[in-house]
Write a structure and sequence with these properties.
This is F-box domain-containing protein. The chain is α/β, with parallel strands linked by helices. The chain has 13 helices and 12 strands. The chain has 2 domains: 133 residues, Leucine-rich repeat, LRR (right-handed beta-alpha superhelix), CATH 3.80.10; 180 residues, Ribonuclease Inhibitor (Leucine-rich repeat, LRR (right-handed beta-alpha superhelix)), CATH 3.80.10. Strands 1-2-3-4-5-6-7-8-9-10-11-12 form a 12-stranded parallel beta sheet. Helix 9 links the parallel strand 8 and strand 9. The protein starts with 13 loop residues before the first helix and ends in a 6-residue tail after the last helix.
Length: 356
Amino acid sequence: MRTIEHQIFYFPEAKTRLESLCELKFDTSINPSYFYGIAHICQYIQRLIIINVKPKYNRGIAKLVEVQKNLKYFEWNDDFDEDYFTEDPYKEIFLELEKQADVLNHLELFFLYIDSCDYYITSLQKLLPKLHKLKTLIINDFCYNNDNLSKMMIYNDLEILNIDYITAYEASIIIGNSGGRLKEVSLKPCDLLKHENKFSEVSLNFIRKIYENCLLIEYLSLVFSPTKDHFTEFEKLLRICQNLKLLLLVTSNIHTRETEEKILENGEELLKILIRSAPTNLRELRFFNDFKFSLKALEEFLEKWKGRPALSILTSDPLYNEEDYKKLINNYKDCGVIKTFRYESILDVEDLNFKI
């Protein structure tokens, strides 16, 4: 529903036609009275998708959420031009979501990076610990550090954890409290700069939390330092997590200030580990530009990958657009080792929903 003008719940047979409605997508420009009418008829909606086009509280939407008896999927997307709020558009709606905790299993929230932060953070801090049945948690902004909140986010059925700007430390807490059903863990690389004094310790713990709690993992963003201990734990993860299909590898040399030669050595070691221990389901690799591979190391890796399923590779490093690399890559495309090898923006590489 977009800018609807008719109160369709007054139409003949409206109750008969609409009471079984199971999915509804609308924007917040619609008059609140309309939602009161819909709420009177439609109480078994399973999927609500809301486009928030006005940073203003809509009481009718809160009422619609309140009366639902089987709301499993809730998606909220901010999409407005104003850069300030006159009132909190989230509070009452999120309070009603708390009451859906026994059935709600999919929560997807997209907030704009403006003055909304204080509003939705306060509401989220109250909401997230209550939603104990979640299977999918997707939030585009987790702009605060709150270890106590992470400890309260216990989701035994969680399968997808996709949160932007959460630290590896906070993610480790949530993963450790999950029920062993996680299939996707997607983080943003900017988190590497957080906990910088303890980054090595935090990233080691993150890897261990994955292979201890995520035996079913298929899609993974992995952050670590290029040290011997990290490579050892990474190889252990590969051997344990046999369902891996897509792996985004993020490393940072910011704390070690490594030379170009050492960076290439780290890349060679990574490729050797992948050849030795990569699970047979692995189909896609993504690298950030702190991982670099010499022409020789890449050729040896691709040669040894022969006989396995064709590999898709995504990188944020323009190095692989150079003529020597392009020639090598095309040769292995021709013989079926590589399905695709592309240089893309950092935003696309880090987004596991971006399809090659």
